[in-house]
Amino acid sequence: MIDQNWIRQNVEQLTDKLEAHGPRLPGRDTLRRLLQDSLSRLDMVSQDDYDRLLEIHQRTRQKVEALSQRVEALEARLNASDAASESVPASGERESE
């Protein structure tokens, strides 16, 4: 979660930039509180946390793909084994001549 200092710093930067384009904003404190309240309600994560979660997701996806390939290979072997056992006549049966 983003800490309050980050929110406070960004709100200050925004209001300072707005103020640089004109005289002191009427309601500047109200705007600051509104921005701060709005940003603090957002469910945000830091870039570091996002990058870590992205790495975890990528590793998990690779593992899932590897497991999927293994399952497909095992199913192919099982199907080949079933097909081979069906083509061999059972003992006691005679092939027609």
TrEMBL record:
First and last residue of the signal peptide: none
Q: Which domain of life is it from?
A: Bacteria
Which Gene Ontology cellular component terms are annotated? Answer: cytosol
Q: Which residues does the annotated region (Disordered) include?
A: 78-97
Under PANTHER family, the record lists: UBIQUINONE BIOSYNTHESIS ACCESSORY FACTOR UBIK
Its recorded name reads Ubiquinone biosynthesis accessory factor UbiK
